[in-house]
Design goal:
Length: 450
């Protein structure tokens, strides 16, 4: 079974009520295991046997087998025997080829793992099934989070499925409307606060003095356990062949931490021989980790006042920064930042693949272009971009981009031609076939001109 351990002082601890941090030194907690659910140390033959069983479960109709998280339940023995997981059949997301991006970058081994294909449209569902299941096991009746939108949507859905109440704190006017709609739809008590994400986190912490809610923000170590199964699922889809690079967006820095933990544990247990280099991409206006690495060698967090149109990652004081630094160091990855124009362009380019994702996810493709240019990613290497959210999460962003209303002149400078080439025109025509034919001709001419 799992126990909790402080990442700072190493103290073994029971799960604290309230804010989940080490009672001795205040650092973050992580789940650890003396042995996994299968008991003894894994032998190579044992590893192959588990890989076979996990794959077989894909054919099963049992609820826990149909979940892409609980299918790997031996990797996260966090629930007591007999406990039922709260699942919405999360995980099992596709890996897509990106032929257009491959051609553009010259990297033949490029794929996107699309976590936006989860039940509530983002990777958060992997963590939420774990945290909410754990909350219910502990007898909690209400869960809460501060969020830039996706955590809120996911928590609201899983809480509803568990028959629990949920409380969402979001920054007023600074999250994508569709995420807000999800929280409302799934029945969360939804509070917009006149502050940013970092302010919402502060208020949630203060609220714990007044109301006993179970926090499912990513400081919750069980969230990370669910999210780490992405590593196993990804390797399984590649027949356990480890890619050279995995790129993830960085906001509160839990996903990168979880992915790193996942790969490192799989390696420690003999399920893979090496780990990919995990690199984290941030928006230029919300770049605390990039600055922390560059200016403080990863030793001290440099907080920023965050501003980016990729609202999911509009975070200046990331809770899991220490865990993320460790993942960069352990896997040999780097942190880079990309501009608003690069994000918008990358998003439209992914859209043109028929894939689509939300702006925060597109940072990975934008960041990859930079890393190829720098020579950090070599032409013969294999790369996985983790697309964290669905394109429909932020339809306003899409329309504003194509209508030319998204970026201001300063942001666009130097990128005008590239952006113009990706901007799709919305036609408003009289209801006549001739008018549509003319539009077709003009569109064909536009394409040829590019
Ligand atoms: N991509 C999307 C679509 C997100 O919603 C988030 C985080 C991230 C990337 C960054 O992941 O925080 O683990 O580094 N969204 C959180 C939320 C903060 O409240 O929905 P991270």
């Amino acid at each position: 079974m799992a126990y909790l351990r402080c990442i700072g002082c190493g103290e073994r601890t029971a799960e604290p009520s309230g804010w989940q941090q080490c009672q001795a030194c205040g650092d973050l907690l992580e789940a650890a295991y003396d042995e996994l659910a299968w008991g003894t140390t894994l032998t190579p033959a044992g590893a192959a046997e588990w890989q076979r069983r996990w794959r077989e479960r894909r054919q099963s109709d049992r609820r826990e087998d149909r979940s892409g998280v609980w299918r790997f339940r031996e990797l996260l023995p966090i629930l007591n025997e007999g406990s039922q997981a709260i699942s919405l059949e999360e995980g099992n997301t596709p890996i897509y080829e990106l032929p257009r991006c491959r051609r553009q970058s010259g990297i033949a081994g490029l794929w996107a793992k699309h976590q936006g294909m989860n039940p509530t449209g983002s990777f958060k569902d992997l963590g939420m099934t774990a945290a909410v299941s754990r909350a219910r096991e502990r007898g909690a009746t209400a869960v809460a989070c501060a969020s830039t939108g996706n955590t809120a949507a996911s928590m609201a859905a899983y809480a509803a499925a568990a028959g629990m109440r949920s409380l969402v704190l979001i920054p007023s006017g600074k999250i994508a409307g569709n995420k807000l709609a999800q929280s409302m739809d799934y029945g969360a008590i939804t509070c917009q606060l006149d502050t940013d994400f970092d302010g919402c986190t502060r208020v949630l912490r203060e609220l714990l003095e007044l109301a006993p809610v179970y926090v499912v923000n990513s400081i919750n170590p069980y969230r990370v356990e669910g999210q780490k199964t992405l590593a196993a699922e990804l390797l399984e889809q590649r027949d356990w062949e480890v890619p050279d690079h995995v790129l993830v967006p960085g906001g509160n820095l839990a996903n990168s931490s979880a992915l790193g933990k996942g790969f490192l544990e799989l390696q420690a247990w003999g399920l893979c021989r090496r780990v990919p280099q995990i690199s984290i991409i941030q928006a230029e206006g919300a770049n605390p980790l990039a600055r922390t690495m560059r200016e403080a060698g990863g030793r001290k967090l440099i907080e920023v006042r965050a501003e980016t149109r990729a609202t999911a990652i509009r975070i200046g004081k990331p809770a899991s920064w220490k865990k993320a630094v460790r993942v960069l160091e352990a896997t040999g990855g780097v942190c880079r930042e990309v501009s608003e124009a690069e994000i918008a362009l990358a998003k439209a380019e992914l859209g043109a693949e028929g894939i689509g994702c939300e702006p925060a996810s597109a940072t990975t493709w934008a960041g990859m272009k930079r890393l190829v240019q720098e020579g950090f990613i070599g032409k013969q290497q294999s790369v996985i971009l983790v697309l964290t959210g669905h394109t429909l999460k932020d339809a306003d962003y899409v329309m504003q981009f194509h209508e030319g209303r998204l970026l201001d002149a300063a942001e666009t400078r130097g990128w005008e031609t590239a952006l113009a080439a990706e901007r799709r025109r919305l036609w408003h025509l009289p209801a006549r076939a001739e008018a549509v034919k003319q539009a077709l001709d003009e569109a064909a001419a536009d394409t040829l001109a590019q």
